[in-house]
Amino acid sequence: MRISWGKNVVNGADVVWEPGRIANPHIGVFADSGMGKTTMLRRIVSAMTATGHPRVRFHVFDGHGDVDIEGASSVTFHESSDFGFNPLELSADPEFGGVRKRIQSLIMALNQTSVRLGPRQERALTRLLVALYRREGFLMDDYTTWAADPANGKRYPTLQDAIEYGRERIKIVATGSSQRAVSALQDVFKAAKQIRIKEAALSRPGADDEVLAKLEKELESARARAIDSFTEAVSTAHTGDEFEDALDADGQKETLESVIDRLENLYQIGIYRSTPPPLDTRARVWRYIIKSLSRDEKKLFTLTRLETIFTRAIARGINSELMDICVLDEAHWFVDGSDDSVINRMVREGRKFGICMIFATQAPSDFADILMGNLGTKLLLGLDHTNSSYVVRKLGFSEAKLKSIIPHRRVLVQMKGIGELGADATLVSV
């Protein structure tokens, strides 16, 4: 795989990108609006397609709908879509896949939007999904159950399944016999405690043993109610989690309702469906057009899709060839400084699994140090002067070289070679 950036302005030599010579294959393209970011992205993808592995797959996340690439299979996602990706699809890999990791990644993606889940909501969603997976035959602690088997009717649950299952759980919490059983058992304990107190009082002169007899009758009545309630609970057990739900019943109905509301909102976005999008498997470039989604929805779609790409790459194993190349236009919409962010994990660990990340944004300061430090290549196409101090201080570019940039004609390219702690920037004629 090879990209020619152009000619070195000083000596006329070709300035070439080759992943085997770069410390990290990830690329950052920085430029103000109108300086050619989109054109550069097209150029990068075109060069990689022409010189890369025949099975390389490009994933272009197009937030404005303007990163049109020749030969790409493009799909537009919106709330009326009848196709999408299943956020509950598991990786069957025993080391990197499974129920717990899938649930955690979904919760992390939700919590990177502007409306985070609270601790009770996280717990309720986790329990809901664990129970749903178990019902469908996918056990959290048994990796041999993690693979789907459509031929025999074993399929991964969908977001719609989770919503319907959650509604069932709400009905059980609201009217369930297990909760009545726990309440009846508490009545038994209360009556028994009153009897113990009265028995202690009877040891003193003048105690009223008629009161004790009355309490004994109340205890027997409470025991009978508890037995009836527990018998009903056993007979009507449906999910296997009823007793635990009953013990944690305080506020649970409201918490579950808020979780189901969140899942319904996710479904209505139109990006999570059981029918896969009509992406052409023969095309090397898959373009996800997400222009009609809100900022939070764009971020959620991108992060959950990247999680799937990363998980599959890890399951595929270590690979010296770049096989998955993810292109994020307006990358500042999606990045943050969290160590757990899938983007930060991909730039740290993706190289050995055949992953390359390409980012385009207006300002280098949009990126946290963890991301900026893992970009093997940085391209500056033209920045506002307000970014100059950051670029000089953080990236080591000189003021003189920044002033030498001529939009659409001369750019600065910094490529850090293998074993190098830093690299100088080269002024390139494009």
Task: Give a structural overview.
InterPro entries: P-loop_NTPase, T4SS_component. Keywords: Plasmid. The protein is an alpha/beta fold and 430 residues long. It has 3 domains: 3-73 and 282-429, Rossmann fold (3-Layer(aba) Sandwich), CATH 3.40.50; 99-176 and 249-269, Helicase, Ruva Protein, domain 3; 177-235. The protein is 43% helix and 15% strand. It has 13 helices and 11 strands. The protein has helices at 37-51, 99-111, 119-135, 159-175, 177-202, 209-235, 242-247, 252-269, 295-316, 342-349, 369-372, 388-395, 399-403, and strands at 3-8, 14-17, 27-31, 57-62, 73-76, 285-289, 319-328, 353-361, 377-382, 410-415, 425-429. An 11-stranded mixed beta sheet has the order 2-1-11-10-9-3-8-7-4-6-5. Strand 7 (319-328), helix 10 (342-349) and strand 8 form a beta-alpha-beta unit. Helix 2 runs antiparallel to helix 3 and helix 4 (159-175) packs antiparallel against helix 8. The longest helix is centred in the middle third of the chain and has 27 residues, at 209-235.
